[in-house]
Amino acid sequence: MEIIFFLTKDAKSNENWIKHAKPELKRKNVHYDVIDISEEISIKDFLKEILRVIDENDEVEIDITHAFRWFPMVLLVADMYLKEAKNSKITGIWYGEYYKDKDETRALNKVEVLEFTEWLYAAKLFKEYAYTKSLASLIKVKIKEEKSKNGKFKKDIKKLNDLRKNLERLSFYLRLGSVEELKKNINNLVECLNNREFLYEIEEFIPELSPQKV
Predict the structure, then answer these.
(1) Which residues form a coiled coil (predicted)?
(2) What is the pLDDT of residues 139-159, one digit of tens each?
(3) Which of 66, 89, 113 delimits the end of a domain?
């Protein structure tokens, strides 16, 4: 594991860093690197700095508690780039929220914001290019998550599972070039998409996809 701080000149001279963060890191014998950045750094250059220190197949967790206000927007772009170019992914977007009434700070993981972009991008690929792999993979993961929550396969997500199978078959038959099988599969897919139970399951289990009306 590698820990990297991106710090401006003011951040490095701030009491929080000098009297609290640095001594605590030293006390726990935590190795880390510091990358100096300017307060006037452009979004483009900051994105370059982040991508420069991330390697192939990395899993990245980012703390945005004291980051630039525009930083969360950069994460959306960085996440898409990392997946495509480096087969890496952002697995955590952490934010320290202070609760005044309890005088405590809780670390909250807001990574779900990236899940919305994944669903939207997968839906776009399917609608515009008939590329089904991304959407089928996301549905498979979602079904697995629901199954693990309940300990068994829920009846309510059978239509989603049918959609996943149809998408996987469509991708296979497109590569195979089988016209007859493609016709059958497309008919099955259209029937599945128009099914009321399927629409209910989309709204219930995949709200990210519901507005898309795939």
Answers:
(1) 143-170
(2) 888 888 777 776 555 555 777
(3) 113
**49 and 97 both lie in a single domain:** yes
Instruction: Give the domain-ending residue among 113, 144, 164.
Output: 113
User: Among 32, 47, 37, which Cα is nearest to 12's?
Assistant: 37
Number of domains in the chain: 2
Please report which confidence band the pLDDT of residue 191 belongs to, taking 50, 70 and 90 as the band edges: confident
* Residue 12 domain boundaries: 4-113
